[in-house]
Design goal:
- It catalyses: (6R)-5,10-methenyltetrahydrofolate + H2O = (6R)-10-formyltetrahydrofolate + H(+); (6R)-5,10-methylene-5,6,7,8-tetrahydrofolate + NADP(+) = (6R)-5,10-methenyltetrahydrofolate + NADPH.
- It holds the Pfam family THF_DHG_CYH_C.
- This is Bifunctional protein FolD.
- It comes from Martelella mediterranea.
- It contains ten helices and eleven strands.
- By secondary structure, it is of the alpha/beta class.
- The protein has two domains: 86 residues, Rossmann fold (3-Layer(aba) Sandwich); 133 residues, Rossmann fold (3-Layer(aba) Sandwich), CATH 3.40.50.720.
- Strands 1-11-8-7-5-6 form a six-stranded parallel beta sheet. It has a three-stranded parallel beta sheet with strand order 3-2-4, sandwiched between helices. A two-stranded antiparallel sheet has the order 9-10.
- A hairpin with an 8-residue loop joins strand 9 and strand 10.
- It binds ligand LMY7XDAE.
Length: 299
């Protein structure tokens, strides 16, 4: 049976280091890390995540701001909110919760966030810095940064000689994940919906990272015995067995089947998910250190 990678416990230990770094910064410079989260519209899941981000930021001792805009907000209004936050010296990190309502174009909004405040690591500048391996001045997208910490907790820092397969090529996850694995010396294959013989490609992986958005797509015969399996999926499905109207979360990996084959595996919930908000806190503290002219801590 595979080792279950406990994302909650690992996230808790990173949060302790974030708290300590925030305290040290405030004691030495008087600067409190400031995080602003902008949410547009009424999507229930997005509101849950944004509330959790605000709560976590306060626990870490940050100055925390939430800006909630109505679903019919114009592109111009959203961009003017980001422009104001760019100029606010008390704010070191700006995040626009995704997805945005369909009438809004996320691309220009993300690009106008100052790169040094782009704690989601989604701007072209930060994606480019990661692409060329600049870890000193860039900010890395939170979910892949968190997934990398989970992988390191099992396999260590150097992934030389390991084959890694990432399924999914989104800017939010797949692409930065591939770059992080490459920087750790893994041999990386980026797989996606057009990949031929996806199951066969996955079976070559010592590290299999699934971000397909399709519940339980990865089956036991896709997994190389002993592989480290990282599940980034979260699909909410009805769970009438838990009571009327109840739901449960499924990952992109058929956990029950794959657990018997893998060497280590993340559960859903409680695997990669808790690392996302944790790494947002880490990026905010990093941004605040850099804004104060100090070398940022590593997480
Ligand atoms: N601007 C951004 N938008 C979105 C991001 C992001 O990183 N930046 N990621 C996701 C949503 N997300 C944070 O925003 C997020 C998703 C999941 C979790 C999490 O803790 N999941 C738990 C389960 C939680 C539950 O019960 O629903 C887990 O997997 O254990 C945190 C944050 C899309 N948008």
């Amino acid at each position: 049976m595979a080792q279950r990678i406990d994302g909650k416990a690992i996230a808790a230990s990173v949060i302790e280091r974030v708290k300590q770094s925030a305290t040290d910064l405030e004691n030495s410079t008087g600067t409190r890390p400031g995080l602003a989260v902008v949410i547009v519209g009424d999507d229930a899941a997005s509101h849950t995540y944004v509330t959790a981000k605000g709560k976590r930021a306060k626990e870490c001792g940050f100055h925390s701001v939430q800006i909630t805009l109505p679903a019919d907000t114009t592109q111009e209004k959203l961009e003017s909110v980001v422009a104001e936050l760019n100029d606010d010296n008390a704010i070191h990190g700006i995040l626009v919760q995704l997805p945005l309502p369909a009438h809004l174009d996320e691309f220009p909004v993300i690009q106008m966030i100052r790169p040094e405040k782009d704690v989601d690591g989604l701007s072209i500048v930060n994606a480019g810095k990661l692409a060329v391996g600049d870890m000193k001045t860039g900010l890395i997208s939170c979910t892949p940064a968190g997934a990398m910490i989970l992988i390191r907790s099992v396999l260590g820092d150097d992934l030389s000689g390991k084959n890694a397969v990432v399924i999914g090529r989104s800017n939010l996850f797949g692409r930065p994940m591939g770059r992080l694995l490459l920087m750790a010396n893994a041999t990386v294959t980026m797989a996606h919906s057009r990949t031929k013989d996806l199951a066969g490609v996955c079976r070559q992986a010592d590290i299999l990272v699934a971000a397909t958005g399709r519940a339980e797509m990865v089956k036991a015969d896709w997994v190389k015995p002993g592989a480290t399996v990282i599940d980034v999926g979260i699909t909410r499905v009805p769970a009438p067995e838990r009571g009327e109207g109840k739901t449960r979360l499924l990952g992109d990996v058929d956990f029950a089947a794959c657990e018997a084959v893998a060497g280590a595996i993340t559960p859903v919930p409680g695997g990669v998910g808790p690392m996302t908000i944790t790494m947002l806190m880490a990026n905010t503290v990093i941004a605040a250190y850099r804004a104060s002219g100090l070398e940022a801590p590593a997480f």
